[in-house]
Amino acid sequence: MTPEQTQVLRLLCDTVVPSMDHPDDADGFWSRRATDVGADLGVLATIAAMPAGQQEALGGLLDALGAQGFATASQQQREQILAALGPVAAPLTSLILLLTYGMPDVTGRNPNWSRLGYPGPAARPPLPGKRPITPLRPNGDTELDADVVVIGSGAGGGLIAGRLAATGARVVVLEAGRYRSEADFRHLELAAYQQSYRRGGPTPTADQNITLMAGAGLGGGTVINWTNCLRTTDRVRGQWAEHGLTDVATVAFDKHLDAVWRELSVTDQCSEFNRAHEAMRRGARALGWSFATAYRNWDEKRHDPLVAGGLGFGDWSGAKQSTLKVYLEPAVTQHDAQVIDGCRVERILTANGRAAGVVGRWSREDGTASATVTVRAPIVVVAAGALETPGVLLRSGIGGPAVGEYLRLHPCTVTLGDYETDMKGWWGPPQAALVDEFAADDDGYGFLMESVQYTTGLGASSMPFTTGAEHKQAMADYRRYASFIGLVRDHGHGRVTVDDSGETAAWYSLEDETDVRSSRRAVEAQIRLHHAAGARGIRMLGHGVPAWSAGEDLEAFIGRASEVPLRAGGAVLFSAHQMGSCRMGADPATSVADTRGELHDTPGVWIGDGSAFPTSSGTNPMITIMALASRTAEHISQTAI
Description:
By secondary structure, the chain is of the alpha/beta class. It contains 20 helices and 24 strands.
């Protein structure tokens, strides 16, 4: 970047998080600027790691700000310039906030955390340095032979690898992310995003409408998800039977659900309520709505609610029963499966119209070495997740016309309730309870209300920026908030494409009439839940929606919130559940795999993750992904090995 661009960037950082005079500033929170915590250096480092095209675009944005007199403008004038840019500047503004409130200093803490009421990561006892798995590290171009090669190691791929390895099959697992074990986790938000999340953390869809959160690493999303275990509903099972998966609606599928439930040690005995959950329960009781304690895949003997509060950043206690722990470790240590992490599969090999293996590119984490990895195998299981599995098939030229279509995201709206007390949201499991009062609405395309993990960086970056003073005041009150989400079972869908370089892009516009109606009703229900629980202030994460305060007209606030556009520049929308982009079904025109999970057009290639869902699950999908993968593994064993 040029010196002029760097100067504008630093001014931009301190416009978003300015220094302000305030009578209550014993800890320096109000006077502390973004550059005082090194946010500008973090932004520069992030930009330096971006592709050249993105760097050029950001440089152009900074040049445009400079051309408008940003360098000599007052704080108010700079805020007006940002407001005029609207969504164009939003990603950079969000990055500044993420770093200002999430980035630790050399002591492992951020100076803003004391005002936010966050004590920082729980103290961690010494952990064994030995890792259960030793991934294969190629020494130059490598060829392997196997009975099965599994692409991806998350909820579906990890289970299938474990199941098939236990039958005696020679299994090779290729994972694009990196292997992390308990010894690696520090419960630091930004480090966790970089180490264990796809593309380094929360990233928007290509159309900027929804922020995606997906795991990346050995064990996939099961290593960093929030352990909310929900069985596939009868309604969804019946609907999938209409797509040709007839056994899913019978006791035959119960066998898979029960097995996964047992293997993951699912329990409701480690679901203590923090103050956000207590507020949810209080509000639900006042309104007469259904409320349930969550079941979680967790080892009761290792449970500590303080540690559980940071499980989205990697669980170092060993309590989380992830795919990595339950299926992959035994596959390697007991059944001689091989694992290569840091290996991006470029394409699937075929011979005479059927699977013959895969070719991928391995790279050392420090970038000092790389190699081509070829695995010859008659069975290929694609389980790279609903955002990346379509990319593998599209780069390979197989799968048919439905590849990448029917992407479901469970789009989530978010509201915050101000309870005028320290809610200590960092304590206890992030999702220990839920309200399912409206799940069956609209013929089963309703919504759940759940809570979220406490974060400082993502929380700050999700709070729409208006002025530096207003945002700083919102963060000064941050400890008093409880967050509820409205998780919609989407009826409509998006798609996944690949660009000229073969990288995937997700596109999703929330326009389906049922989904719009459900999303707006979810916002209203969240607001009413906060109000019934005693919140003295309520805000919706969305642009142009002033917060409600006690004594104001609640119905008018609900009306304003219901009018916020459900897209970029309007409501802040999230997705932690990606499904359906390579779905199973009887019709090759509208599905990628047959009713067993094998590609319609390429025998030997199987879909083994959430992309196989015929429709969205309407529940946190881990248990459903794993039960469906267990069913697929059974079909592979019976017909192909």
